[in-house]
Task: structure prediction
Amino acid sequence: MTASQPPILVLGIETSCDETAAAVIHWRGDAGVDILSDVIWGQAEVHAPFKGVVPEIAARAHAEAVDHVIKAAMRAANASYKDLDLVAATAGPGLIGGVMVGLSAAKAVALAHDKPLVAVNHLEGHALSPRLSGAVAFPYLLLLVSGGHCQFLAVDGVGRYRRLGATKDDAAGEAFDKTARIMGLGFPGGPLIEALASSGDPRRFPLPRPLLAAPGCDFSFAGLKSAVARLWQGLAAPNEQDRSDLAAAFQAAVGDILVDRTANAIGLFGDADGRMVVAGGVAANQALRARLQSLAAKKGFNFTAPPLRYCTDNAVMIALAGAERFAQGWIDDLSAPARPRWPLDEAAAAARPSHRPGRKGAKA
Ligand code: KG4
Ligand code: ZN
Result:
C-alpha cells in the first residue's frame, strides 16, 4: 500500500489473558497509524486475591465487559460501525475462555454490519507492535518477552516468522510474576519488582543464570525462580530492604540472561543491515530495555521497542496486525477457530516443542 491510498478503519479486540481491550485505528500503510481510541479494562482487581490470573474468572469478566469496552472504543473514536473496513480480534494463543469471548464478539460485529473479519495471532500483534512508532522495515530480529512467551523470532515479513530459540520452561514475565508471589507482592509482578529493584543492591544475593554462555539462544528461568524461593525462605524476618535487594538481584540475573541470549541470537540472525526489536510486557521494563539497547548498539544493530503503553496487552496492536494481514489479502470467515496454542512458527514448534502435551509451560 502506498501513502496516497485511503486509510483502513479497523476495530481491534483483545481478550486473550486478563485485559478486555478494544481499539479503533486508521491504518495508513507506510504512512503510519492513527490511534483513534484505545480502551483497556484491566482485570487485575478480580485476580489479585489469587495472586495470578484464574482462567474461569477471566472468561466471565471478559464476557461481562466486552460489549461495553467495544462500545466505549467506538464512541471514543467517534466511529460508526458502518464506516469500519475491518474487524480484527485475537483468536489465540491464550486462555481459551477469554479468546472465545472476544472472537465471538468480533464475529457478531462482522456479521451484523457485514464487515470482513481477520482472526489475529496475539503473538503477531506483539511482533508487529514496534511498527506503531513508525515503519520498522523487514526483516528484523524479534525478542518477544511476555507473561506467556519468551522467544526469538526472525520476522521476515507479515506472516513470515522463523523461531530461533525459546524458553524451555517459564517465560520471563512468568518468572517476574512468580518471584513477586514468592515475596508476597501483588500481581502482575513485573512493575512491582522493577520499582523495588531501583532501590536495591543487585550484588547482595547470589543467583544463578541458567543457560548463560550455552550455545544457541534458548532460555530457562525455572532454576532462577527456585533460587529466589530458597533465598527468601532463608530470611528470618524479611524487611523492605531485603525485598529490594532480592528484586534487584533477580532483575540483574534476568538482564544478564537476556543480554547473553540476545548476543547469540544476533549472531544466528546475522543480517548485515541489522534491526532488532523487543516486544511484550517485559519490554516495558526500563532497566532491561536499556541493557538490550546498549547491546544492540555494540553489535551495530538498530534497536526499536514499542511505546511503553503498547508493550503490555492492548487492542491497538491487534488492530494493526489485522490491518497488515488484510492489506495482503487475508480474510477469515466466521468459522475461524479460537486456539489456545498457536505458535507463529508452526514448523519449528512441531519439530522442537517447547512444552510437552499436558505439562504446564510456555504457550508457544
Ligand atoms: O504482554 P503481556 O501484557 O501479556 C502476555 O501476553 O503475557 O505481558 C504481561 C507480563 C507479566 O508477566 C508482567 O509481569 C510482565 O509482562 N511485565 C513486566 C513489566 N511490566 C509487565 N515485567 C518486568 N518489568 C515490567 N515493568
Ligand atoms: Zn501479550
